[in-house]
Amino acid sequence: MAFNHLPAGAHDALAPLSVKPVTHSVSMANDQLPPEAGVHPAPRTVLDRLVAGQGRAARITHTEHLPPRPGRHAPWPEKIRPEVIDAIRAAGIERPWAHQARVAEHALRGESAVVATGTASGKSLAYLAPVLSALLDGSEAPNGRGATALYLAPTKALAADQRRAVRALAGPLGKGVRPAVYDGDTPFEEREWVRQYANYALTNPDMLHRSILPAHPRWASFLRALRYVVIDECHAYRGVFGSHVAQVLRRLRRLCARYGSDPVFLLASATASDPGPAAGRLTGLPVAEVTEDASPRGELVFALWEPPLTELHGERGAPVRRTATAETADLLTDLAVQGVRTVAFVRSRRGAELVALIAQERLAAVDRSLPSRVAAYRGGYLPEERRAIERSLHTGELLGLAATSALELGVDVAGLDAVLLSGYPGTRASLWQQAGRAGRTGRGALAVLIARDDPLDTYLVHHPEALFQQPVESTVLDPDNPYVLAPHLCAAAEELPLTESDLSLFGPEAMAVISQLEARKLLRHRGTAWHWTRRERAADLTDIRGGGGRPVQVVEEGTGRLLGTVDRSAAHTTVHEGAVHLHQGRSYLVRHLDLDDSVALVEQADPPYSTTARDTTAISILETTTEVPWGDARLCFGSVEVTNQVVSFLRRRLITGEVMGETKLDLPPRTLRTRAVWWTVTEDQLDDARISPEALGGALHAAEHASIGMLPLFATCDRWDIGGVSVPLHPDTLLPTVFVYDGHPGGAGFAERAFHTAARWLGATREAIAACECAAGCPSCIQSPKCGNGNDPLDKKAAIRLLTRLLYDAPEDSEAPAVPEGSEAPTETG
Prior knowledge:
It comes from Streptomyces hesseae. This is DEAD/DEAH box helicase. Pfam families: DEAD (PF00270), Helicase_C (PF00271), MZB (PF09369), WHD_HRQ1 (PF22982). InterPro entries: DEAD/DEAH_box_helicase_dom (IPR011545), Helicase_ATP-bd (IPR014001), Helicase_C-like (IPR001650), Helicase_put_actinobac (IPR022307), HRQ1_WHD (IPR055227), MZB (IPR018973), P-loop_NTPase (IPR027417). GO terms for molecular function: helicase activity. By secondary structure, the protein is α/β, with parallel strands linked by helices. Helices cover 32% and strands 23% of the residues. The strands form 6 sheets. Strands 1, 26, 27, 28, 29, 30 and 31 form a 7-stranded antiparallel beta sheet that branches. Strands 2-10-17-16-13-15-14 form a 7-stranded mixed beta sheet, sandwiched between helices. It is globular, with a radius of gyration of 27 Å. The protein starts with a strand and ends in a 22-residue tail after the last helix. The N terminus and C terminus are likely disordered.
């Protein structure tokens, strides 16, 4: 029997809400309604009010105080146009920070550069100064088009926000700067104007891949004059998405060379590890890095918050903590009543909707005008819905917003006082990016990380040094992944026939992949080049965000109204027949899922339950790339094939989490070829660890769950990006085996990172299980919210002994001990 743990789309990690009445930490009288705009309480005062309620103070496990920091100025480089400097001064900025001036110097020398400094450190101005200067130079060219610049953002919201900033800054520069957004929401009649007249086009990698590059003859004058390519929030380009974007940028560089341009790449990132090499992998170019942050910083109070245990019990009788969702909704309510402008970042779309809905209901008991000042924001909304929410946030009409990471990447909202993080966002880079949304005008700010009931969050709130004393992660991406490279070589061949001299641009695996594409008759070699052979567009071969195909449209059955979309990879687990779907605070039941037409038909309902998918997973080894002995155990990395099928779903009561029933589903299996790390143990090692055959399945399963939960601490991934399987006797290894695999075709680099940091990763996993105070296992250590087997079987004590024995023979790790200090080595037993 295999125990599986699936990547993205399994189900929401929603434990039951507490049945106890909420005691708010502030008075609900009308004289405590939100104060007038412009009142910004000190972050320590705000936190003191939040913990004033009964039992609240005990929920804070640590408070970190980051003191304010003064700024350091430098002069602008001489080649920046005086009109640009005057416009910057008119915006209230007399002199640049030292890091802004350094980026401008690199840009003016024709050197690609990445600025990796803190949130609100002025990264936008660092690249805008040389870009605007070049656009003004170009506006004086005889042909009238002059220089152009391309801006890439990972989200539409960020591109729209950048356009507002550019228009405000470039207003005094007249028609010399013509910014325009070109994305999926741009009306078709406006797109021609952008192509012909805009000299600063703001778009995203998806549009570059699907629209601009395939239609490059229509963009010829723009590409011919391209001086700068700005890549904002470049740390977001990781894993499969980052690998796709890396190949899109190589296609862009190839077309630019065809039109005679050689643009400079300017990248901006939240503080990241090794940003220069990471930017080089992304662009394929040498990139200078600017990492010393010379901007001033306001005071930041950062609290770690662990929800209390409830009187409820979950699967297998495990103790259950109050959910991060319910706790976040309470805190958002209290902050709104105080008039503290707050964004709550929630890990899932469903969670964001629930936080906003609960907060609105509780605010209605205070004042009927308050619920309208709290909203949800997530991907899948229609464009007009997103824009309306963004406007309300900018104007201050909204006091509170429950948002997914769709809002994380750079929507510059002045005046926010606090940020709530409902669960660890997966990486330290994202943690600081989200926390930096508050206090952006230099004032003090409050950030609160509210732990979910899982191994990583529990570990972090009790090990603050892992957050506050460790550098942020390096960006993991693999542009040579053949599943990524193949469709981009096809797209490049359709854009311009591929020659042998082009292949070095696409990486060392390009020739081998070309041969495979020839064998599949997707490319044909004629003369000195390879040509695309099909009538359909090659750019449609892949979804660069790894969604696995066309998104599923969620349509209201009675009216035909489009409510939004769901990623195809998540459709089996989130919009299967009978699933509960939340949208804008309303509940809908899915009546029919048509995978052929990518449509889920729903009708509005108010069921007293949520739904959770159940599935089965099998895994087979295709190739072992690397193998390392750990005594008699083996640590391996290689290629695997994963077969998964959603077989049923559970209905759980909203209040208690009680299972009301299980319904069978008839959905097709899905097959994934990817990369995995796995480890085996021998019978002698099991005897050493005193693990009986009856306990083996539970020990392996528990170790698998906890190791998946801890991997985001060592690789830039989310637990929903990875999956796992544990098998007491695997047919390919003939040994007890635990697999952890990338949840994306061809792999995403996460399993490889796990392989290279295995001693530290599994050591932290063992420590997290051992340190948990529960008796037999709970969501804070070995239970998983997305387990397809209902967290059965699990054996906490046996898992600790198993990992201790495994790590005893692990190679020396220079960064951390494999077996945590204080652990005893296993003893021989016979």
